[in-house]
Amino acid sequence: MNQYIAAIDQGTTSTRCMLFSHNGEIVSSAQKEHEQIYPRPGWVEHNPLEIINNTSSVIQKSIKASGVSPNDIAAVGITNQRETSIVWDKNTGQPFYNAIVWQDTRTKAICDSLAEDGGYDRFRAKVGLPLATYFSGPKIKWLLENVPGVRDAAKNGNAIFGNIDSWVIWWLTGGPEGGSHIIDVTNASRTLLMDLVTLDWNDEILNIMGIPRDMLPRIVPSSDPNTWGVTDISGPFKTSIPVCGDLGDQQAALVGQTCFSAGESKNTYGTGCFMLINTGIDIVPSNSGLLTTVGYKFGDQPATYALEGSIAITGALVQWLRDNLGIIDSAPDIEKLARTVDDNGGIYFVPAFSGLFAPYWRSDARGVIVGMTRYVNKAHFARAALEATAYQTREVLDAMKKDSGVLLKTLKADGGMVHNDLLMQFQADILNVPVVRPKVTETTALGAAYAAGLAIGFWDHQEDLRKNWQIDKTWRPQMNEEKREALYSGWLKAVERTFDWVS
Questions:
Q1: How many CA within 13 A on the CB side of residue 63?
Q2: pLDDT surpassing 90 at residue 441
Q3: What does the pLDDT read at residue 262?
Q4: What is the residue-wise DSSP string for 192-234?
Q5: pLDDT tens digits, residue range 106-145?
Q6: Which CB contacts under 8 angstroms, 24+ apart, belong to 199-203?
Q7: CA–CA separation, 105 vs 353, rounded Å?
């Protein structure tokens, strides 16, 4: 009997492979970081070949660490950093250019030009998204217009596009030897090119952007009984395992947190911060700067939609303090340093390194530190950096209340930063709701495993998955209302200082 599901979690800074048991527990894990490439200010790239090589490596290491026979792995699910875009030669597998990462802002001029006719919400009614550098469509347009040979290769049918999920699945299922060129509905909904109603590419938008439809992958469910192919993830054992689960990372966390009912929400604290609220089968437009997106689609069931608040820089700010300023030696050190002071010393740190995402969508913004005095030291920097994550989450939650009318009672939290007790307590204080951490915090990978397992009957129903979810720790609000609102008011004032920096 197949007893395990493998999940590949291809993230912004690293790639992991994790094996999960039927009760949703982690059996083994292997992880490897990849290079962050910054050719110019605002440009962020990854090497696609490094990513696929790392994927192969962590698969082998995870299987070896588990002691599990590859014959006991029932299926493979994939989750990925969304919007990061690759165009490659389908005959050779060679990328025409590095992957353009979701944080990259080089497409600002393209977005501005497209917005001249109809504004930045020009396509929002159809795709649920504003025109922004965040999404894949403008990145494809940039590659077609700026990389020699790409336009001609696309016309000849040789250049194909995919987000990272498409790239990984194509290689897992054969690559140049017949690999499946697919994308699931959640990733497709992040391109600015997919109609939320039809769940198909929108030809009008493709024509406006000058993107050939033939270079795009086939859109499939997130959990697909019609498996996309098989992969030999077991090296010399030559075991063929179906690949049948695919979710963008934040939607994968929604599934991993078992937020299957309308009104349930989660927040993932990673490189960026992403809060999603399940809106059921209803496509809820946002008037408050949120994104309307596909939450997941299981087989032939109707798609489930979500509202999302996307924050570009949260955990990445901790990395910046470590790598660029040398204030800390490792990411976990930030909590110890921040605890040496009682507050932020009067400073606010707004990390608009890639502009501001939800609820502002200001690509002209850049990061600021305000309120500086000679009293401030590096510990205040550390504390302000952590608090920035909590404040940005509060902004998104306020927007969700306006759009959905749902009053959040508890926030399910996951991602690497949820092990920072200082941050989680401050988050509960600023939101004035309890924050809950599940026992399995790797909910992104778990969601990908759930998608693959549901496709092949490893789990029969969504209720089976709910039974696996258990609370590890709860943080409850301890701050009084007067202090909460005073601190938050200072944050909003600081955010205004980031506007209009880039002309």
A1: 21
A2: no
A3: 87
A4: T-EETTTTEE-HHHHHHHT--GGGSPEEE-SB-SS---EEE-S
A5: 999 999 999 999 999 999 999 999 999 999 999 999 999 9
A6: 199/294, 199/297, 199/303, 202/123, 202/126, 202/127
A7: 10
